[in-house]
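#lab-general

N.A. 3:47 PM
ok so I finally got the sequence cleaned up, no stray characters, all 166 residues accounted for. can someone with queue access submit it? mine expired

B.Y. 3:52 PM
send it over

N.A. 3:53 PM
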Amino acid sequence: MAHKLRHGLPQRIVRAAVGRNLAGLSWPIDVKCLVREDRPVPTRSVIDMRCIADTGTFARYLPFSDERQVIVRRGAELGQDYGLKDPSEQLVTISGVEVYITRHRQILSPPVSQPSSKPMTPGAERRYQPVSDVLRLPDAEVLIRRNPDGFSDDEVTEILAAITFE
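B.Y. 4:20 PM
back already:
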């Protein structure tokens, strides 16, 4: 099935089987993947970063020489709730394949305030509203923390450059 989208590229729907049903949602889910007519839809992404933990469906990568991590979910781990989704999606090209990256903001509850505690500073409040980018590949979701203490735009570009398809 191919549909014309912006830039004259066809859209193909790739099925990602995750093998579970959450709150009445139907699975497998559809993942949008834009490809050129002469290229097959990629089936497996390869992430060329130092992996520090991998269970097969959940992995943690260290793209740089600090403790900041990139989370990759596959298979049964797909379809997580990443928080409030920004209404805009950005189309990015990875190894000639165009995929969507979306921004999400979580709203976390801070610890209960004690009568003797000081009011929370604006910087501390931001820690309870982390912002992340989610890259939706045909076979995986890549979670890239942006704020607080996350990756800059240039660093995200380097992370995306480390992803290829088989």
